[in-house]
Amino acid sequence: MAYSDYGAFVYCNGKRREDKEDVAAFATDIETFGVPVEQVPSGARIWTFLLNLKEEGKEFNWLNHIHHGIMGDGDIRVVCHKQGLPEIYEATKDGFKKIEYCPEETDPFEYGTVYAEYKDYKFEFSSGKPYTAEMIEPDGTIWLCKYDYGYGAGLTDEEGREL
Fold first, then answer.
1. How far is residue 130's CA from residue 59's CA, in Å, rounded to a whole number?
2. Fewer CB within 10 A of the terminal residue: the chain, N end or C end?
3. Distance between CA atoms of 130 and 147, rounded to whole angstroms?
4. What average pLDDT score do residues 140-156 get?
5. 25-63 b/e with 16+ CB inside 10 Å = b?
6. Facing residues of 115 across strands?
7. How far from 90 is each of 37, 63, 94, 108, CA to CA, in Å?
8. Is 138 exposed, middle or buried (0-12, 13-18, 19+ CB in 10 A)?
9. Do residues 89 and 71 make contact, with C-beta atoms less than 8 angstroms apart?
10. Is cis: bond before 41, omega within 30 of 0?
C-alpha cells in the first residue's frame, strides 16, 4: 500500500520485491519497524516507523526514513522517493556516502532520461508517468523501480491501472 498517495513497485530480475517498497534504504526491518517487514502492511509502514522513532527517542535520519522504493541488497542502494530524481548511496565503514552523478542544475523532477555508472554499476533514471529507475549490478542482477504520485500498491495495479 502506497502512502501519501505516492508509491512504487520494485522488481529484482523481474520478480516483485515487496520487501523493498515503503522501507528504509539501509536499516533492517527490526531497526525500522520492531518486527519483520512482512508483518507490517506497506501502507502502515510510514506510521509504524514514525511511532517507533518517537517512542525510542531517535533522531530522524534521511536514509533510515521510509522511501517508496529501494533498489539493491548490497552496499550500493538507489532511493526512489515521490517524483524526484533517484539518489544513489553507498554504505562505507564510516557510514553512508551519497554518490553525485549528474550536474547540480538538473531539474530533480523533469529530468528526461539520465544515465550513470559507478563501480561497475549501471543506472538509468527516467521522469515520466510513472517515473522509472533501473540499476544493473556488476554480476548482471537487474533492479527496476516504477514510482509516482497516485501510483503503487493499493492505488494501482502493476500496469498502472487505478484500483
1. 32
2. C
3. 6
4. 86
5. bbbebeebbeeebeebebbebbebbeeebeeeeeeeeeb
6. 124
7. 22, 11, 11, 20
8. exposed
9. no
10. no
Instruction: Tell me the pLDDT tens digit for each residue of 78-111.
Output: 999 888 999 999 999 988 899 999 988 899 889 9
Backbone dihedral angles phi then psi of residue 111, each to the nearest 5 degrees: -110, 5
pLDDT at 162 over 80: no
What cell was used for 60?
530522524
**What does the block give as the cell for 150?**
497516485
Confidence (pLDDT) at 158 = 75
What is the number of helices (H) and of strands (E) in the chain? 2, 11
Q: What are phi and psi of 102, to 5 degrees?
A: -145, 160
Dig out the grid coordinates for 108 from the structure.
530533480
How far is it, in rounded angstroms, from Cα 81 to Cα 130? 12
Q: Cell triple for residue 87?
A: 539518489
Q: Grid coordinates standing for 143?
A: 533492479
User: Helices in 11-131 by DSSP H: which ranges?
Assistant: 29-33, 42-56
